[in-house]
Amino acid sequence: MTFDWRGYLTLAETLVSSELPVDSDACLRTAMSRAYYAAFATARQQSRERHGGVIRQSAAEHGEVATFYAKRGEAGGAITAHLTRLRFLRNRADYDDDIDDSEASAAEAIARAHQVLELLATL
After folding, report:
1. CA–CA dist 3, 90 (Å, integer)
2. How far is residue 27's CA from residue 54's CA, in Å, rounded to a whole number?
3. 33-88 confidence digits (pLDDT tens)
């Protein structure tokens, strides 16, 4: 059974809205990361299944998915822009020691991931 990557977006929303007995910054950072992967992996999967996209499974696939959609009209360009910003937010969450605006960044990541999923439905 193929994994439904959109479940990561539900997880991200839960992490942002929950009062888990863990560090809230850890929840916000994880939400940013999961929101990115919900959008990215769904886009990658759709490029393969619906559009015959050949995306290698490697570190380069992040850029390849963005490039694939950049060539697919206005909606594809918007997907690329959202994925690029989401990747930036995910990298900050995963690698930066200090993030001053983690709440706002998590909210932005979730909103952008929703936009990607909505745009993918139009292609």
Report:
1. 21
2. 34
3. 999 999 999 999 999 888 777 667 778 899 999 999 999 999 999 999 999 999 99
Q: What's 85's DSSP letter?
A: H
Check if the beta carbon of residue 35 is closer than 8 Å to that of residue 16. no
**Distance in angstroms (rounded) separating the CA atoms of residues 36 and 29:** 11
Choose among 13, 25, 36, 16: nearest CA to 101. Answer: 25
71-93 in b/e form (b: 16+ CB < 10 A) is ebeeebebbbbbbeebbebbebb
The pLDDT of residue 51: 76
Q: pTM value?
A: 0.92
d(CA 33, CA 94): 7
DSSP 78-116: HHHHHHHHHHHHHHHHHH-S--TTHHHHHHHHHHHHHHH
Nearest to 32 by CA among 87, 97, 114: 87
